[in-house]
Amino acid sequence: MNKVVAGPDEAVADVFENATLMLxxxxxxxIPENCISAILxxxxxxxxxISNNAGVDDFGIGLLLKTxxxxxxxxxxxxxxxxxxxxxxSGELEVELIPQGTLAERVRAGGAGIPAFFTPAGVGTEVAxxxxxREFEGKKYLLEHxxxxxxxxxxxxxxxxxxxxxxxxxxxxxNPMMAAAGKITIAEVEExxxxxxxxxxxxxxxxxxxxxxxxxxxxxxxxxxxxxxx
Amino acid sequence: MLDKIGIxxxxxxxxxxxxxxxxxxxxxxxxxxxxxxxxSVVLQSENGLLGIGPFPKESEIDPDLINAGKQTITxxxxxxxFNSAESxxxxxxxxxxxxxxxxxxxxxxxxxxNWKVPGKMVKGMGGAMDLVASAKHIxxxxxxxxxxGASKLLKKCTLPITGIKCVKRIVSDxxxxxxxxxxxxxxxxxxxxxxxxxxxNATEGRLExxxxxxxxxx
Lengths: 230, 218
Fold this sequence. Notes:
CATH topology of the domain at 4-37 and 96-208 in chain B: Glutaconate Coenzyme A-transferase
Radius of gyration of chain A: 18 Å
Helix content of chain A: 10-25%
Strand content of chain A: 25-35%
Largest sheet of chain B: 10 strands, mixed
Shape of chain A: globular
Strand order of the largest sheet of chain B: 4-3-2-1-5-8-10-11-12-13
CATH superfamily of the domain at 4-37 and 96-208 in chain B: Glutaconate Coenzyme A-transferase
Mean pLDDT of chain A: 96
Distance between the termini of chain B: 12 Å
Mean pLDDT of chain B: 96
Oligomer: heterodimer
Number of helices of chain B: 5
Number of helices of chain A: 6
Strand content of chain B: 15-25%
Number of strands of chain B: 13
Radius of gyration of chain B: 17 Å
């Protein structure tokens, strides 16, 4: 089975206006840099982006915010982006903030065919507004629903032509759950290898979830907080 | 009064051998520097790592290895990497022994507010709501009063809350206090040079003072 496409432009060619996208990454770590650039170039508007963060002003999803391609962000933390703040306060951008563990589990549930689940996060807070609360063994939980997307766009370290993926370090984060929750999942990898080159024992995302894969180029891998020990 | 380092040093004394610990951003991150080296503990990073090590040397920096504050880090020998769903499964599932995080306000019922100031920038709750809803033990690092001198240890939180009835212990720049199961703050220790009277005046919520209150040992 060969899922290889030529590059990011071909991979995102059918991303349509008002589509819902999932984009992997935590901060700027493990984000699909090449596909974000291709969507920027394509200019598709009205996007709903499900991603833990919203990038920074001049990188990651921040680039798509600047060009006003994003209609709605669904995230857990968006604190590193001044343009985001401006659009949020002026009402140009819709934002849904979700506790990070709930976000991860809603995406996981989407890929796993679980329409809803109960979680303790957010009980008694404004996150609980309008949600069913149920008590189990004396503790309260909120009913949360799955998340799925038209396109899930993930970044991995290595992948093979069948779409099997291996991530590196903490760049794994939301990528594996998102890979499973997209109607179409696009994987960009730092190194694309032939079938048989990856150890099946080490695969994080089995290829069944991935429809398109390509080897990305010129990864910047920007660091938000460069901290060193003396 | 304690500075940030003082608060971190005092909290480090709460750490016990064998604990798995999640440290929040800010003062809680500093706690790692003061955990006694003879203790064997594992630090969890919500973005998918058990076994946070020291900051890297310039030559060791890896953009694929960051903590929840997006700082570059290293891994300790015996570390484990995982995805975000698994990270919060171990948090929600009660496998993390101790959570240390910052707060803008805590109520005498143990409610905590630390994610949103209405009218100002809304950054989001990140993993804080998941952490406070499930942690076995939560210690809060905070300033006792605002810059204007208003108490942050309140009868009721005024800011949007992050979680209800979850805070067990507070280490502020003035004192160590427990939140009592029936409500109220129990004063345990005073910061060096701070009197019980000063703590009383700085605490809006119900304060329980029993006997002689010792000064913190740092």
